[in-house]
Amino acid sequence: MILLNPGPVNVSDRVRKTLMGPDLCHRESECAALFGNIRRKLLEAFVPGAESEYTAILLTGSGTAAVEASIMSCLPAGKRLIHVNNGVYGERISSIVATQRLGIAEIKSAWDTPPDPERILKSLKQEPAVYAVVMVHHETTLGLMNPVHEIADHVDGRGCVFVVDSVSGLGGEPLDIAGRHMYMVAGTAGKCIQGFPGVSFVLVRKGFMENVVKHPKRSWYLNLANYYEAQKNDSIPFTPAVQVYAAFDEALSELLEEGVANRCKRYARFASLIRDRMNALGIQAVLPAAYQSNSVTAFYVPEGLTYSVLHDRLKERGYVIYAGQGYLESKIFRVANMGALEEKDVEGFGDAFEEVLRQEIGGV
Ligand SMILES: Cc1ncc(COP(=O)(O)O)c(C=O)c1O
Q1: Taking CA atoms, which of 223, 240, 302, 317 is between 20 and 30 Å from 97?
Q2: What is the CATH number of domain 260-361?
Q3: For a substitution probing ligand 1, which of 140, 146, 222 has the most ligand atoms within 8 Å of its CB?
Q4: How does the average pLDDT of the chain come out, rounded?
Q5: Taking the domains of the chain in order of start, what are their residue ranges?
Q6: Residues near ligand 1 with C-beta < 6 Å?
Q7: What is the β-pairing status of strands 144-145 and 161-165?
């Protein structure tokens, strides 16, 4: 089955085989070496040249665990943050922030519109007590790229901490974490890094991490300080998903061999192939090209079809597409091109789509 949903993704045979490696105890030296390798590879991939300025904290849990751990850990006592919301994952950040009342202001924009960096700057100026800004890099809701680099410059310029959810970005979209002084970036193994779901991570500026250990603990499992202190002793505080980590390590080796920039280019190329093919079939994209990511495209469901019929007919042919969310649920469908896909998979999807259109509404 070809997965064209934005994670979990198709993985390579090489990554899949690693799952079947030897049984390992997480308190043994082999595991400490495995975790050390993963952390080293994450820094090499995502903060090249600034590895000594960052640390990677590994968590067993999906991408939300890494985002929630970042939010729970980033604030000193009494400090609050600005959160940006222009999609389902921005909304999730707002919900996490609300659990502990950590917000000072929410900057909301429409799902099909990137937030205006000037609005965030204005809000930073209006709220001198703000300590951090939290937002999504690639808003997977519609496959929209948020202008995180411009916003990072404003946040850094005001002396604040920038926390980024790049769960669906890292590996597929360029992100200048070190150059733009992003303090915390949350990611996951099971999307553009092409590992399995179940493990996630946060890249944190080391100097900042030394402050984080003094922040109040708002969660126990999702407190980054607990992980950081254990990591210093080559340990991990809770039982990790060992085999999934082993596969993650292999997926990171693959990423480094391909190169992050090349992977981003490959994704961009596959996304273009999908968009061109859909365009030729008269299927309209939801977002203008300038906002679109390298790995997810939202399209309107063609007239005469419903999402569920489209989904089911494509699945019968070996392709899994993804529904819209929220108010767009019945109106759109999403096609992701993350994962160990080949050009023939993307072409095959286009052929299958054309066949379904012909069969269901004719005239193509
Ligand atoms: C931008 C973004 N953030 C967070 C998440 C949550 O990740 P998970 O479902 O792995 O918890 C997702 C999932 O698609 C996402 O796309």
Answers
A1: 240
A2: 3.90.1150.10
A3: 140
A4: 97
A5: 13-258, 260-361
A6: 6-7, 62-64, 67, 89, 136, 138, 140, 165, 167-168, 188
A7: unpaired
Q: How far is the CA of 358 from the centre of ligand 1 (A)?
A: 34
Helix/strand/coil for 57? strand
User: Is the pLDDT score of 123 beyond 80?
Assistant: yes
151 C-alpha to ligand 1 centroid (Å): 21
Structure tokens at 167: 């769960």
Residue 62 has pLDDT above 90, yes or no: yes
Q: φ, ψ for residue 51 (rounded to 5)?
A: -55, -35
Ligand 1 nearest-atom number relative to CA 141: 16
Query: What's the 73 CA to ligand 1 centre distance in angstroms?
Result: 19
CA diameter of the chain: 65
Which atom of ligand 1 is found nearest the CA of 6?
A: 14
CATH class, domain 13-258, is: alpha beta
pLDDT confidence of 234, banded at 50, 70, 90? confident
